[in-house]
TrEMBL record:
It comes from the Bacteria. The chain crosses the membrane at residues 6-32, 77-95, 115-139, 159-180, 201-219, 225-246, 253-279, 299-326. This is Cytochrome d ubiquinol oxidase subunit II. The gene is cydB. It is found in: Cell membrane. It comes from Microbacterium aquimaris.
Length: 343
């Protein structure tokens, strides 16, 4: 396989990992106003991701670095054309990270409430805008002969893009509720399961429309992997429905696993629909960025491939070890007896 095509799938793998892992982080953050009835329950919720949220976020850093090195033309067009949405995502992630660290530095209720809302907003904004961005990449955006984005912010706020944002927002929210139910006990656990039942139904409806629309976009472009697009969408739909079934039966581990499969299948569906482009042009198909015309040299990709073979397994092993160490539930009793920070 040509190394450029290999790195297209490696970048896809990194974004899959990011959306699965930081996806439930976003969902947990967005759940605070619904599940956090008091400071103890809010600390219980935050502690479910306290040890892992920063590790989960590193996936997007690695994905961005690989995108820059493997596909510099893609990176340049994407970050210049999507500058404002990506800047908003960055600012939201910074506000969210600061809130985790500073929330417990003072005992005042108003102080904590402010940082709680920063966590909520810092989780909801990326969850929405990542969907808008990826949906627009798949659908295509106006690009000229110099591979420069010629649209505006309003260009990105089209029906398909906004539907993509709504899909990721709801999907991450429900995925996060499954994680809260998996990692907590007591009232928070029960409330998370109950809320996931309601949000899951809305998520199924919105995601179904988005996946069907994606299939039509891929078919209209005569995507060579259209069969994989259909299969991926089908797997995502079945996994999402099964997650609701498992949640209803109080099998939170299986529900969370099925939610993860949903996100994996959904992102792969988008990647299948995009192939062999990386940014289709709606101005003129000949102006589109493809895997071949947007990639780095073979020498650069060869070095990157050897680095990935060495370091990627180590990163995956470290992440697995971290989750194993912090695998226990965050119980309300422990939070009530704790006299230190929620971390």
């Amino acid at each position: 396989m040509d190394l450029a095509y290999l790195w297209f799938w490696i970048v896809g793998f990194l974004f899959v990992g990011y959306f699965v892992l930081d996806g439930f982080d976003f969902g947990v953050g967005m759940s605070l106003p619904f599940l956090g009835k008091n400071d103890v329950s809010r600390r219980q919720i935050i502690n479910t991701i306290g040890p892992v949220w920063d590790l989960n976020e590193t996936w997007v850093i690695v994905a961005g670095a690989c995108l820059f090195a493997a596909f510099p033309e893609w990176y340049a067009t994407l970050f210049s054309g999507f500058y404002l949405p990506l800047l908003l995502i960055l600012l939201a992630l910074i506000a969210r990270g600061v809130s985790f660290e500073y929330r417990h530095q003072r005992e005042g209720e108003q102080w904590k409430r402010r940082f709680d809302w920063m966590i909520v907003i810092g989780s909801a904004v990326p969850a929405l805008l990542w969907g808008v961005a990826v949906a627009n990449i798949v659908q295509g955006v106006p690009i000229d002969a110099d591979f420069e984005f010629t649209g505006t912010l309003l260009t990105l706020l089209n029906p398909y893009g906004l539907l993509g944002g709504a899909t990721t927002l709801l999907l991450f929210f429900t995925h996060g509720l499954y994680f809260v139910a998996l990692k907590t006990d007591g009232q928070v656990h029960r409330d998370a399961r109950a809320l996931a039942k309601r949000s899951g139904i809305v998520t199924v409806a919105v995601a179904a429309v988005f996946l069907v629309w994606t299939i039509f976009i891929a078919a209209g472009r005569e995507a060579p992997l259209i069969a994989f697009v259909v299969v991926g969408a089908g797997i995502a739909a079945v996994a999402l429905i099964m997650s609701l079934v498992f949640n209803a039966r109080d099998r939170e581990g299986w529900a969370f696993g099925a939610g993860a499969v949903t996100i994996v299948a959904a992102v792969l569906t988008l990647w299948f629909a995009l192939f062999p482009y990386v940014m289709p042009s709606t101005t003129d198909p000949s102006y589109s960025l493809t895997i071949e015309n947007a990639s780095s040299t073979d020498y650069t990709l060869t070095i990157m491939t050897w680095a990935a073979l060495i370091f990627l397994p180590l990163v995956l092993a470290y992440q697995a070890w971290t989750y194993w160490v912090f695998r226990k539930r965050v119980t309300r009793d422990v939070i009530e007896r704790a006299s230190v920070s929620p971390h």
